[in-house]
Each structure stands twice: as C-alpha cells, then as structure tokens.
Amino acid sequence: MDAESRKKEALEAAIQAAVADDSRSKAILVVTSVFLAISLVSVCLRIFVRTRVVRAFGWDDIIMVVAMAFNLAFAVCGIVGAKNGMGRKLLYFEAYPDQFSRALLCWWLGQNFYVITCVVAKVSIIITLLRITVDRIHAWILYAAISLATAVGLIFLFFTIFQCNPVSHFWHQLSPTGSCVHKSTLIGIAYLYSIGAAITDLTIGLLPVALIWNLRMNSRTKTAIVGILGVGCIASAAVIIRIPFVHHYKDREFLYNTYQISIWSNVEAGLGITAGCLTTLRPLIRFLRDGSSASRSRRPGSFPLSSNVAANLQKSSRSRGGEDVHQLWPGSDPDDYHGVTTTIMGTQRPNPRSSSEENLNPRGWKVERSVRVSVRDDAV
Predict the structure, then answer these.
(1) Which residues contact 20 (CB under 8 A, 6 or more apart)?
(2) pTM of the predicted model, to two decimals?
(3) Which residue ranges are recorded for the region named Disordered (predicted)?
(4) How far apart are the first and last CA of the chain?
(5) DSSP H helical segments within 282-336, as ranges?
(6) What integer best gives the mean pLDDT of the chain?
(7) Cα–Cα 20 to 30 A to 363, which of 30, 87, 125, 286?
(8) Contacts of 45 (CB under 8 A, 6+ apart)
C-alpha cells in the first residue's frame, strides 16, 4: 500500500470519526429544548395569571411575550442548526457538504435572535421593577440599566448582522467573493456585550432586594420574593460563564468549538425570561388553592396599579409597607405584611382603566371625598 492510499484511508477514518462524534450537537439540542420548554411554560402561566386571574395585562407582559417569540426563533435556529452541523468538526462536512452553509446560517440567525431576546426580556423586567419603585435613586439606576442593556445589545447586534460584506458571505464562506471583519473586532464587541449584559442582570437581580428589604413583612414571604427575583442573578452567571469561550469566534473549527457559546446563550435567554415571569405567578398559588381568585371579579371601586412611573415616584413619600408588596406580588396574603394602614370609605365613580393597570386590593376599596387615615401603634 503506497503513501497516497494510506493518507486516503486515514482521511476516510477521520471523516467517519467526525460523523460519529455527535456529542456536542446533542448537547446543543438538549439544552436548547429544555430551556425553551421552561421559558415557554413560564410565559404561558404569566399570560394566564395576568389575563384571567388578576386581569391586568400590561406593557411589561406584552414585551415579555415578544421576548418569548424571539426566544422561540432562537431555539428553532439552535435545534435546526444542531441537526445540520452545529457542534460538528469540519471533517463532518466532507461527508455532508450541503449542511455547512445551513449550519452557519442557523448560527448567524440564532446569534441575532439571542441578542434581541435578552435585551427585550431585560426591558420587560425593568419596566416591571419601575412600576414598584418608589425611590427616585432606584428609578435612575433602572433607567441606566435599561440604557446600558439596549446600547450594548444594539452594538453587538449591528456587528453580528453586518460582520460580512455581503451579509450572506457569513454562511457562504467558501465563496471566493466577499469579506468579513477581523475576528478580533467581533470578539472585542462580544466581550463588551457580555460585560454590559452581566452588569444589567446583576442590577435587576439585586436591586429588588433593596426595594423590599425595609418592608414590614414576615421573613418567609420576604425570603420567597428575594429568592424568585434572584433567579435573574443566575442569568448573569450564565453570561459570565460564557465569557471565557468568546475567543473561540476566531477558531478554524468554529462550529465545533463554539458549542459552549450556544449552550450558555440558551441558558441565559431561558433563565432571563423565566425569572421575569416567576415574579408574576404568586396569584396563581391562591387561584389553585381556593379554586378562584378574588382578583377575577374586579369591582369598579378597586384601585389599579398604573404603569405610570412618574406617578409612582410622586407617591414615594406616602407609599410604604404593604402597598409596595401588593404592587410587587398581587394576591399576597394580608398577614404577610403590615405597616401604615389607609382606610378609605364610601363609593367611587367608575373610571376606565388601561390594560396595564392592576388591582392592588383584590377585595376592592371604595372611595368618597372624605378620607380617614388610621395608623396602627405597632407599625410606628
């Protein structure tokens, strides 16, 4: 057997080994499917709670549904890409050459959908937090976070879309025409985005602790709220874990070595959406426990939770204690909190409300021109 034949046999053996090595493709497929299912269930439960239980479907809910739509597109790209060569070595495409362009196209589309998903989900969560924020400093922190997330997201999205000229050259890299930016530039932008995303996730994960820390409520409820809101910190951990793998953008075995980026991107997107939805599901517990919800029968005299952030800030000197808890977690038990109690009696003229307004008191308050305020001694 001559040297040429031995080289040919060695190449065929290497190709067969590359075809058989599907562990990374399977990892992408499994992780993508799992976190798609988790986030999809969370969003569906959120829609049910907000439309059927508390009947207060607002802009933050709409934006989260949009984020879920992009996350679904991102997951489809990951699943289809895993079936067509994402997570595979280049030798695999010697046996299946038609899949190379499809795998690169799925990667390119997936990266774009990933960025949009994460940014939109952060916007939804921050809008929710702005609705319960009463201190101006906390509001400005959230405004800074939403600005940072949007800015770094748009920069990264621009570079991922237009990194090649023409754009299609990214998935037609075997074509002699066309060019792409130097990989070091893209890696630098990816680092910038990852750092900005981690800062934003940590902000929206830790700031709620400051929002509720001084509220008068039992430790069980406070711990539960902090724990659920802290899921956002896990999403930031996914961003941080992904950072060491960003340098693989420049690797020749691009599709094979970037599977960790794909996996942790799915974890980040899925956990971000799930964290944003878990904070709205407390009324579901009461709904399932009682078989009905007092919030389902909204009385004309019930007070809504407006999405007007400026109005919330103006009420900062008057709004403390249990009212904040109702805004954060409608449907919570009255015994979970105590503090300054405002008693308002009489009747209220019905006013039309927007869909973003939420019933703070499921049993409803009635309003007349005369207002009586009583303060419990043990709350002072």
Answers:
(1) none
(2) 0.77
(3) 312-365
(4) 95
(5) 282-290, 309-314, 322-328
(6) 78
(7) 125
(8) 277, 281, 284
